[in-house]
Design a protein that fits this description.
Two copies of one chain form a homodimer. By secondary structure, chain A is mostly helical. Chain A has a single domain, classed as Ferritin (Up-down Bundle). Helices cover 82% and strands 0% of the residues of chain A. Chain A is built from eleven helices and no strands. The longest helix of chain A has 28 residues, at 157-184. Chain A is globular. Chains A, B: This is Ferritin-like fold-containing protein. Chains A, B: Residues 16-193 form the Ferritin-like domain. Chains A, B: It comes from Nocardia callitridis. Chains A, B: InterPro entries: Ferritin-like, Ferritin-like_SF, Ferritin_actino.
Chain lengths: 222, 222
């Protein structure tokens, strides 16, 4: 990053930073409960344990964000409230019907979110960006997901086709909800604009996200 | 503890130690999923977060036990298998029908288990006992539970009566399942005997557990 962009970083006091921490925090909570629920369909105790570990990692991230918000004098529950509807809508509209769909959703959905928030982090001061990058850090649990999915799609072409469509739908729904959140929250939109420059920059961001998405799909073999 | 009892400690290589780590590990997994499921009935987002944190703490303990078993050359999934039925039976027979019942079960059930395993830890070498005590350590989340329950029973006598009966049932079911496990697993029974001396010692252990249980019920105001 050039010293220019650091100089023009969004100040930590910006209300958009509170919004960013809050939407990430509610993302962790909702991911926790989705994962725990979807583990019902795990084919083995090993799968259940893997999912429980992923879910527990989400709560570690939540605690980081809760502390970061507390340090700003903000109650995490108040701050999360505006984002409950959009994130719940994303999860309802992408409710997995099989264990493999859950696994793809975890891997692909987390990846899409990480791309989006990591780009925003580029506009933040180093200490604020560090919180964001910390809670987005990929965990080793992803390896479990990649193995589960690759093994299944290698032996079944119809499974592969089905999961390919599923992955495409996840990207579409995620972008829909991201746009909805931005339309509702000016503070967050300003942050995204600070990170991308202008509306063309936002379009370019969504293109880069589609490229990364395609790479993740390829990693899964779909 | 006198140097005598340390000298006569159960050696770390004892197969009962593997059983002990394994039953604790499955206890953490099953508690994780029970908590996550019961959080559906949480009256607020704050309650859901508190439960998710408790559940995440269980997974931290699971990881400790998984590592301890790996250090013994034992696969955690193989080792847990003999305990799945008894622990699942305990949870099925004590399925909470309200949020407050879930809270009482978390607090009282965890306490009963901790009493039992802490007594066994007294017969172990310090390094093995440290693993057991580490995974049984009470977390600060208990405070949340105590507050939730106390507040509810202060304003409702019928709620208090109902939860008192519920707490009594939890103790009964826990002892039933503990006896069932011991009848099935000689290695574990030998550990309990090493910790308590003889059958009279086991009876005395169950009496001490009842006393601690009564104290916990009093803390909850029931």
């Amino acid at each position: 990053m050039s010293s220019d962009s650091v100089n023009s970083a969004v100040p930590p006091s910006d209300p958009g930073v509170t919004d960013l921490f809050a939407v990430l925090a509610y993302g962790e909570i909702s991911a926790f409960y989705r994962l725990a629920e979807e583990a019902e369909s795990a084919p083995s105790l090993r799968g259940k344990v893997a999912v429980a570990k992923m879910a527990a990692a989400e709560m570690g991230h939540f605690t980081t964000l809760e502390s970061a918000l507390a340090a700003r004098g903000v109650d995490v529950y108040d701050a999360m409230a505006p984002f409950v509807r959009a994130l719940d809508a994303y999860h309802s509209s992408t409710d997995p019907s099989t264990w493999l769909e859950s696994m793809v959703k975890f891997y692909v959905g987390d990846g899409i979110a990480a791309d989006f928030y990591n780009e925003i982090a580029g506009a933040l001061t180093p200490d604020v960006a560090a919180v964001v990058r910390d809670v987005l850090a990929e965990t080793s649990h992803s390896e479990f997901v990649v193995e589960e999915v690759r093994r299944a799609v290698e032996v079944s072409r119809s499974e592969r086709d089905r999961l390919t469509l599923w992955g495409r739908r996840l990207l579409g729904e995620a972008i829909t909800q991201a746009q909805y959140v931005m339309a509702q929250r000016d503070e967050l939109t300003d942050l995204v604009l600070a990170a991308t420059g202008d509306l063309n920059g936002i379009a370019a961001l969504f293109e880069r996200m589609q490229d990364s998405h395609a790479e993740r799909m390829a990693t899964l073999g779909i």
